[in-house]
Design goal:
The chain has about 210 residues and is α+β, with helices and mostly antiparallel strands. Helix content is about 55%, strand content about 10%. The N and C termini lie close together (about 10 Å). The N terminus is likely disordered.
């Protein structure tokens, strides 16, 4: 993938107010395959040296993301050779940005995946910031440090979210969850579906098509 054209996310979601926060800065972001796969600031789970990469565009107000998250976690754990790149893509509600900022602040204390799991465990959509904070507190986050990191690293956190937003636009994603699995782009998958696409991705890579 070479540089690709960015789309305005307002068009994707019919004018979601939350996305407008990040629109001006994103207009100047150049999107490349390297950025999507290897942004050094992006949280990575699973096996960092895995032979297949799954890039996961997700939103903490997305019920479908919440349904698929434990399925993907199981697949990644059982497989053992999957590199899982998280892309917080807050496109559903204004509080989606709150969720993305909170988990990326938790990433500064080395607890991104615990924070991700905690927010994905809140049922429904339209989750308010304080409910998210309570879920993180219950999951054992150091909330004082999280607040400090959120304040001190806010520009870095927001810059990463802006890059994620630009990447989603450039790929033409239309909703969450969205997954890049090797050379394939997918949406909702069940356990068997993930395993099949991962197998297909490995075969494609072996053939030089990954």
């Amino acid at each position: 993938m070479s540089d690709v054209t960015r789309r305005g996310a307002l068009a994707i979601l019919g004018g979601a107010a939350a996305i407008a926060v990040f629109q001006p800065a994103r207009a100047e972001i150049e999107v490349t395959k390297e950025m999507i796969l290897n942004d050094p600031a992006a949280p990575v789970g699973g096996n960092p040296e895995g032979d297949v990469t799954i890039v996961n565009f997700t939103d903490y107000n997305c019920p479908y993301c919440k349904k698929v998250a434990p399925v993907l976690a199981r697949v990644v754990k059982e497989d053992g050779k999957i590199r899982h790149v998280y892309k917080d893509w807050p496109v559903i509600r204004p509080t989606s940005i709150d969720g993305a900022q909170l988990v990326l602040a938790a990433h500064r204390q080395g607890r991104y995946e615990q924070a991700h799991t905690a927010l994905m465990g809140i049922p429904g959509s339209g989750i308010e910031r304080e409910r998210m904070r309570e879920a993180l507190r219950q999951a054992g986050m150091d909330m004082d440090r999280l607040d400090r990191d959120l304040a001190e690293k806010r520009d870095e956190i927001d810059s990463l979210i802006q890059r994620n937003m630009a990447q989603g636009d450039a790929l033409g994603l239309t909703g969450t969850p969205s997954f890049l699995i090797g050379p394939f782009r997918m949406s909702m998958l069940d356990y068997d579906g993930f395993r099949q696409v991962i197998s297909d991705a490995r075969a494609a890579q072996a053939d030089g098509n990954g």
